[in-house]
């Protein structure tokens, strides 16, 4: 998929080096098609890294995608240069009059706080409510998934006691669902979180479907019955070294952190990671874009309701 992003976005040079087709704005302007408009609500502190992760997995279909980046106005990131935020990000006030084919809400390092304690929770609620009428399908990741399940379905999050950390095997509950079309019977995905949702609190929730889960990591993918809200509790978009970087960071902080499960060769942090989730990650995002965005969205964006 040609990803249409600003010519000077830092992710472009990284993706170019990997032979990912990134379309500069100047070339995109000459193509007589309507691109899919995707909004990335980036709540992660290292925003440039997360942009690259997500743009990489959005790059695997023949459709043109135009990406807007959204940040909170009630909380300003201290880990991303202000110049970058000013150049590439919008606030909700600036884009709320628009409609989008799809939106991604990322995770955030606030999972051990109650939702109502997060200083941008009211803004988050406003954006999630807006998404119900202004976005064809919203894809929630990790804490974003927990926040979405809580807001849309009243599903609480629970502390796990220790960090769910590593790459875990998953199975598919609904093989007929297009989101998991082409998935193997057993596939892997990374998780990195201290909280989770309980399967038993979701099973009988009207309008909510559990699509995939793991014996170790719990519910992985859920969705609303109308297919407009998708919740993914893990991080399939992660790069090969992301869990390693998190592990090294936590060790340096003196935290009591276990080695990420099923990740390092021979479970040895001095050895390189074993990458077992990349094909699943690309398939998950290409299925989302194809079946839940492209095939579901109206040609005229203003007709989304």
From TrEMBL:
Residues the record marks as site: Important for acyl-CoA specificity: 111
Reaction(s) this enzyme catalyzes, per UniProt: L-homoserine + acetyl-CoA = O-acetyl-L-homoserine + CoA
Where does the entry annotate site (Important for substrate specificity)? 192
Where does this protein hold substrate?
A: 163, 192, 249
Give the matching Gene3D superfamilies.
3.40.50.880
Q: Where in the cell is it found?
A: Cytoplasm
What HAMAP family does the annotation carry? MetA_acyltransf
Kindly provide the name given to this protein in its UniProt entry: Homoserine O-acetyltransferase
Q: Which organism is it from?
A: Breznakibacter xylanolyticus
